Every structure is written in C-alpha cells, then in structure tokens.
Amino acid sequence: MFPTLLTIGSFSLSTYGVLVATAYVTAIYWLKARRAEMGLDSEDRFWDLVYWIFGGALIGGKLGFVIVERDLTLLWRDPRYGFVFYGGFLGAALAGWIAARRLKLSFARLSDYFAVALPIGQSIGRLGCLAAGCCYGRHTDMPWGIPLWGDPSRHPTQIYESVLDAAIAWLVWRFALARVRDGRWKRGSAFLLYVALYAVARFVVEIYRGDDRGFFWHGLSPSQLVAIAALAAAGVIAWRRKS
After folding, report:
1. Could you give the angle at the alpha carbon of 159 between the alpha carbons of 153 and 162, nearest 5°?
2. pLDDT tens readout for residues 42-55
3. Full domain range(s) for residue 141
4. What's the pTM?
5. Closest CA to 215 of 73, 67, 63
6. In this structure, what DSSP letter does residue 37 have?
C-alpha cells in the first residue's frame, strides 16, 4: 500500500486523490478529442456536459455510500472519501440525460462515447484504491496475493478490476463504438455493451472482495445485486431495440 504520494511539512498529498484526478482528466480528454463526433459544436457545450455529469457522479456516489452503510452522517463526515461506483454511475447517467435535453443532443449518441471514457477512468481510479488499501480482497495463498498493512496476503481485487476495466474500454472502443459510428449498430448499443460487460466483471470481482460492503442479501453484496439488475436491464433494452 502507498497511501501518501508526497509529504512536505504538514502538507500531504494522497496517492488515491492523485490517481482519481488522473482518471477523471484522462477520461475527459479522451472525450474532448472526440467532441465533434459527439455533436458538441463548442467548448462551452462540452464543458457544460462534463460538469453536469461530474456533479451527478459525486452526488450519486455519496448517496449510494449512505444507502449501503445506512448512515446519514456519512453525507458530511468526510467529503473526500466514501463513494459507491454504481451510485455514481446512476447519478451521472441521470445528470447526463438532463444535460443532453438542455443542450438538445442525443443522449444515446453521447452515451456511446462515455461507454469508453468511463472504463478508462475506472481502470486508473481502481489503482488509487490499491494505493489507499480500500476495496481489498479476501485472504489468499496465491503467489500474486498482496499483504495489507502487514496482514496475510489478499486477492488484489483492485488490480483485477483495473485490468478488466481496461479490457472493457478497449473492446467497447474498437468493437462496439466502431460499429455504431459506421451505422451497423444503433446509437446507444456501445453503452449497453459496456453496462453488460461491467456488470459481469463487477459481479465476479465481488466474489473475491474481503472489505466491508454493507448489507448482504442471500450471500450477494449490494454491488452484485445492482450488477444483476444492470445486466438484466441492458439485455431487455437491447432486445426491445431489435424488435
């Protein structure tokens, strides 16, 4: 674990914060390079969309954490930490839909590009979790296990998800988005593929997680329950779009 990147006197810079910021910047500038393809004809409209989605992700992620932990005080206890991905995802999706309507743009068209940018950011951000020692895995005797604060080795679930997120980003970009752009697939199809692939990846990674993730239902974590719902929703929407 490497929680602190830099310390100067009383000032310390967390590795987690730097990697999460890097994740956001990388994803945003991947999108910025494709602004015209997304139908955004000005810098102002692009940043308007980004700010809406960023705000929705922060609010949704924090509310998701409060729901999972069942503790309302977590809303204000420490604004720097305590976010749930699926909460942030739903918040960002809702904010993106509202912003698309305000900007008179196609949400489906925009979503296909965010389906690449999002897993790019996730793949970097999860390394921040590794540095901070959160989202860790169960004990393991496998040679690639990583000790946590001197404890026995644990599954490096942060790395598992980082690698899977990078693979999803590449697959959606090179396979799905390419087909949407040349007209073989309908707009929104790349986004649906991302939702489905990430749901499967997250469900599997959760099996190896060993940290506190709130309440469980029939042995399933909150993220696994949401992953099942997300996979089902993506499948139903994809089926209805073909009919």
Report:
1. 165
2. 999 999 999 999 99
3. 4-14+112-242
4. 0.91
5. 67
6. T
